[in-house]
Amino acid sequence: MELVKEVVPSTSIDDESSTSFNNHSSSLLAVAPTPNHQRGAAPPAIIEVKKGGGNIEKIITRLRANAGRLIRLEAKKKKLQICMLSKFTNSVAAELKASKFFWRSTFMD
Questions:
Q1: Residue pLDDT, tens place only, 41-92
Q2: What are the boundaries of the region Disordered (predicted)?
């Protein structure tokens, strides 16, 4: 019986140390980045193109050739909506400007 009494205090010490470890690890988890903040992640952007001086089919063909940067491409009623990663917005905007299109860019929530 004396051995059991000695084991009980040692178990309680182990429990305390595991509790302090759990508290420490939970604080580390709180600091860890969330999946939305992964390295290299950028919020998607939308460019809406209204009819302009250029050929809209030509710009669609060029954008589809570089499809790695697109999330969605929608054409309806002489309006083109391009959804892409925001880091590509400037290069696509330059293509649209060269093709004399009217466009505006917005960020998705």
A1: 555 566 666 656 566 666 666 666 665 555 666 666 656 666 666 666 666 6
A2: 1-22
In angstroms, the CA 48 to CA 66 distance is 18
All structural domains of the chain with their residue ranges: 2-32, 44-107
Instruction: Count CB neighbours of 34 within 10 A.
Output: 6
**Can you give the pTM of this predicted structure?**
0.31
- Do residues 49 and 56 touch, judged by C-beta distance below 8 A? yes
The fold of 44-107 is Alpha-Beta Plaits (3.30.70)
Angle between helices 56-65 and 89-98 (to 10 degrees): 150
Helix (H), strand (E) at residue 31: helix 2-31
| Gyration radius (Cα) of the chain, Å | 28
In angstroms, the CA 95 to CA 23 distance is: 53
Q: Please state which of the ranges 28-32, 100-104, 105-109 shows the lowest mean pLDDT.
A: 28-32
